[in-house]
């Protein structure tokens, strides 16, 4: 399948989504989706697609902050499940490495290349340690400053309004595709100065790049790599065109004019594209869907939103906490150490479960409930903590705030009115489909 930046996306994209591919795989091999006998193995995607992960983590938190999982589809690992414990590990980046060279940021292990083949690695700045992490993060950080947010706000509001005004009334439609994907993909296209007619490729690439379980299915991992190489080829053409121009505020131009990023290897270039696309797409997109689903599940909170728009800024933080669009990040011990009374060995895999930390009863009262008046909602860890905290957090918060403000301005109430399909993944927490109907309050 060849990429052509001048061709419309619908002429190019013929592959299934990773969710379709995984569902087909598990339908053909049901034994692969059975729950693992280790009761605290939260790496299995069945507990997420069936939305039954909460009591498992609640039991783990009651028993302590750290648990060793000796056997899983991803090998042995340590689970960090309490809020304070996750912050503690995040605050020690030299001791608990994020580097791709030690394993990276997801529960996956580094794939061993076949004989005669080159290792397939995706270095990206979130999967680097200092000092290289610092230089590359500084390169893209100017795209997310308060001044940039102010500059972008009018455009985001106008585009959000256009999408909301186009929604059908009295008809069931998929909120995920029509609103969440469309708004976040538009935003990514603006950040990259990406060809507008091909913007849905960004969503397609994000889905294939962000699904860690694909790597556990050999045939799907081969397809995933092919799609990522096609993504890189498309962006390399954009890079070549952009290199002929002067400095500009888009992310590609920022990388071109950065000493820390303008000499990246092809795989490092691909890795940073994956980071920026997945980070800019999945987190905001799935919270946009999570807000609608949560308001439908907690009608008293939807009523509070409708009666008091001053609650919107805090509602954004609470919805991010409640949804927690990225479930985990992985760290690797760089030396032998003791952690919460347990002996951690150099090279051990340590998984930080943000979804569990954000439901920690020691921090959040009635943590499984949505409460848009929650006084400490901002203590959520959905964006991480410490030096690796999400560089685009302000933009995500801005997009979500504007969405709620524009929904309120139109007195728009969204009801879940059909199928709800969750993403089968242990990394991204999201919705594949959310059928809704729009009315007014």
UniProtKB/TrEMBL annotation:
InterPro entries xrefs: Cyt_P450, Cyt_P450_B, Cyt_P450_CS, Cyt_P450_sf
The keyword Ligase belongs to this UniProt entry's keyword annotation: no
Pfam families cross-referenced by the UniProt entry: p450
Keywords: Heme, Iron, Metal-binding, Monooxygenase, Oxidoreductase
Molecular function GO labels: heme binding; iron ion binding; monooxygenase activity; oxidoreductase activity, acting on paired donors, with incorporation or reduction of molecular oxygen
SUPFAM superfamilies linked to this entry: Cytochrome P450 (SSF48264)
Keyword Heme appears in the UniProt entry: yes
Free-text function comment from the UniProt entry: Cytochromes P450 are a group of heme-thiolate monooxygenases. They oxidize a variety of structurally unrelated compounds, including steroids, fatty acids, and xenobiotics.
Family statement drawn from the similarity comment of this UniProt entry: Belongs to the cytochrome P450 family.
Name the UniProt record assigns to this protein: Cytochrome P450
